[in-house]
Design a protein that fits this description.
The protein has 170 residues and is mainly β. The chain has a single domain, classed as Umud Fragment, subunit A. Helix content is 14%, strand content 36%. The protein contains one helix and eleven strands, in the order αβββββββββββ. The strands form two sheets. Strands 1, 2, 3, 4, 8, 9, 10 and 11 form an eight-stranded antiparallel β-sheet that branches. A three-stranded antiparallel β-sheet has the order 6-5-7, with no helix packed on it. The protein is elongated. The model has no long low-confidence stretch (mean pLDDT 89).
């Protein structure tokens, strides 16, 4: 009987610890589309750090997991931050332009043919503008009915891919 109680206690403790870690430390995100290819591939599982933004705000080019609400549904998306609060952003021929910047944003993360014109978007305080690295097939800020990601919807910063391969997210 002692052995059984010890096993049950160990199991309950392990379960409680796992729940605490997933609720307060990490986000386990599953990527179901090609919107972040080649950085994150369809079917990849990603660990995101919930504690990353306790001491600093999200930065341009961070890859983040966040809650996206549309049509009464909640989705967890993984995208790259390209527009910051208070900025005016416009996409011309697929190139992201930020008012006040000398040059368009670099597209070193972008996969596939760059095309399309969107905006201008005036990003409100406390909100961000996010895009997938595979801009051609990404459902992101440029397409959403409400194009801005509220800060409170950000769950964490993507850190590494653990399945089906091991890789850091950059």
């Amino acid at each position: 009987m002692r052995t059984f109680i010890s096993i049950v206690r160990t199991f309950v403790l392990a379960l409680a610890l796992a729940l605490l870690i997933t609720e307060f430390v990490v986000v386990n995100a599953s990527v179901v589309s090609g919107s972040m290819e080649q950085t994150i591939m369809t079917g990849d599982r990603v660990i995101c750090n919930r504690l990353a933004y306790l001491r600093r705000e999200p930065a341009r080019f961070d890859v983040v997991a966040f809650n996206h609400f549309e049509d009464g549904q909640r989705w967890v998306y993984v995208k790259r931050i390209v527009g910051m609060p208070g900025e005016r952003l416009e996409i011309l021929d697929g190139i992201v332009h930020i008012t006040g910047k000398d040059a368009p944003l670099p597209y070193c993360f972008v996969y596939g043919e760059i095309r399309g014109n969107y905006g201008p978007f005036y990003i409100p305080p406390g909100h961000f503008f996010v895009l997938g690295d595979n801009r051609v097939s990404s459902y992101d800020s440029k397409n959403w009915p409400d194009p801005f990601l509220p800060r409170e919807n950000i769950l964490g910063r993507a850190v590494f891919i653990y399945h089906p391969r091991l890789s850091l997210v950059s």
